[in-house]
Amino acid sequence: MRGNAALAGSPPCRYPVGFRMNAVSTSSFVLSRKHLLGIDGLSADEIGGLLDLSEEFVDLNRQIEKKRTTLRGRTQINLFFESSTRTQSSFELAGKRLGADVMNMSVVASSIRKGETLLDTAATLNAMHPDLIVVRHGASGAVELLAQKVQCSVINAGDGSHEHPTQALLDALTIRRNKGEIGKLTVAICGDILHSRVARSNIILLNTLGARVRVVAPSTLLPAGIERMGVEVFRDMRAGLKDADIVMMLRLQRERMNGSLVPSTKEYFHYYGLDAAKLKFAKPDALVMHPGPMNRGVEIDSAIADGAQSLIQEQVEMGVAVRMAVLEALARNLPNA
Amino acid sequence: MQRNGARPILLTNARVIDPSRDFDQQGDVLIADGVIKDAGRNIRAAGVPEGAEVVECNGRVVAPGLVDMRAFIGEPGAEHRETLASASQAAAAGGVTTIICQPETDPPIDDPATVDFVLRRARDTAIVHILPMAALTKRLEGKEMSEIGLLKAAGAVAFTDGTKSVMNAQVFRHALAYAADFDALVVHHTEDINLIGNGVMNECEFASRLGLLGVPKEAEIVMLARDVRLVALTEARYHAASVTCSESIDVLRRAKDAGLPVTASATINHLALNENDVGSYRTFLKLSPPLRAEEDRIALAAAIKEGVIDTIVSDHNPQDVEVKRLPFADAAPGAVGIETMLAVGLRLVHDGSLSLLKLLHAMSTRPAELLDVPGGTLRAGSPADVIMFDEDVPWVLDRSTLKSRCNNTPFDEARLSGRVLRTIVAGRTVYEYV
After folding, report:
1. Any chain B CB within 8 A of the CB of A117?
2. pTM for the whole structure
């Protein structure tokens, strides 16, 4: 996994011999595609390659000198049509640590309100010759639509209820580091499956790696045909968590809370909120995850979120590493790379 | 449209299909003075009129021109999408000789002056017949019934709120009851908007994978079932504008078996495509109601054959790129179809689902009957709205060649078999494929 096979092909070190830093990549993994629009279509080998590359960046990110130069000269635009704190900052940090020039564009309150369409924005940005565009948009399929109209690589940072591939990859990395082989695990994904791009990307990824996947939610938060997407469906949290290795909680959006799809946050927490009593039904060494931001007391009890079984902070750390790996793997495919 | 001065036309050695008489035989059709003089066997033997244009059909089909019960045209108010003139050009190329335009215009066709405007404008600019349906409720708001009597007298052929459903059952009941007094046909888009919610395609596994919210079939079935109860109460003539799922067919069959004056259309899109054709968020396949499962498509074709669904419509709805080049959920629904409805409909003949006679019955004779408008027949003395087409010739659709002002066809690059070679309206040739 961390062999030195690719050392020969790496750029010359700018630092004196003996200076301790990971300035060179040890993995030669190349993602042989232009864009990362979703987990759907990635092979187990491609996922494994991305996770292996991510491991290197985990080590790098724990050092004082975190900077690499593989994206030096490259321009990365973070184009966010939906507000986001953690994903945007994670991509920004990832790009900067790899040496790219990173520009953040939050379009939530700018030109799109003046009537400029998604594709006009795409054409405008394309004319500025970026190398990588990271896009989040509230509509499913919007990132794919944009990718058709630009020449650079596009990374989906979440499109509607469709996919959020880097979240699924960082979840997989977190699971693999704590539990080893993912294919041997039972993962329960709990909460608002209907509207969740995180759930979809995770269901596809975990199935690709051979894990046993369950979803746990009230019927109002389950999409049609979910039982044919490679999951076991549970409406009861205790039954759904029984003997699970990983309990993955999802955020419940505020607008779904009050009577439209669930009666109240109180009732939701009672039946679907993760607390110590429900977590007991999972394996004793089960670990808890949440993509954030959390609604404490709605889908997860604070004591669990901050407790010994929680991987939530580690997920954030893995997020930067995974995004560095994705940026670098795609950049290796760019012209003149 | 000029109706006089045309040379007589003798279409000879044709496969003459007249669904109004269950006629499908080799023969000739003689047209003069804007009407059909005769259609049948051995007409040529009786002599060719002086000065007549003799068209050797070489066994190709001659049939009544199509009557399309559901087309959305942008005039007045959205001429950038489609004018009466451009729609008529597209219709002529597709073998449609009568277009029934929908009242969802700006302003809507909800007063007699607008009906009159459309009729005059069509007379002056269109090359096929265009007749309007008028709004069932004022401003298409579903709140107050429109002037059904006066609108009918002005020339409205039926009453509908277009793509909108009248959600208020009391308003709909009263509109039905009042329309019945004038023997007016009420055409209704049957979708419960609350059950649609934010849905944008059929509720199914594929929608879930795409992350698109679904429209359940029940949105249609519930509304259709409600309507049938209200028809039983009011005895109004009622037509479901576009049914899409197999359960709706059961509702229709029960209503017809009970003797209720209920009829229905299916769109050419729902007869030829299914939910999977949405593919990777193709907005040209975003329709209202949405494309359903393949089982539903097959059931619709069977229902046409059985006669439970009466008519096939184009549901022609031109939308420009500004409202289509958007993420799927944000894009406007609708597809153009008037120019391709026959060619696409022939797929159902070639795959054995329908006889050619049945297809043409559902596209010409039956809609003309329901609306009580001329056309849909080759009987002597009828208006000479006639088409000649080759049912087999293969071609590939290139959407840039469509005559409509918008080219949002779901059949771009589709392989089609059969195309219209000549369209005759009121005795004059308005389209010829060269």
Report:
1. yes
2. 0.91
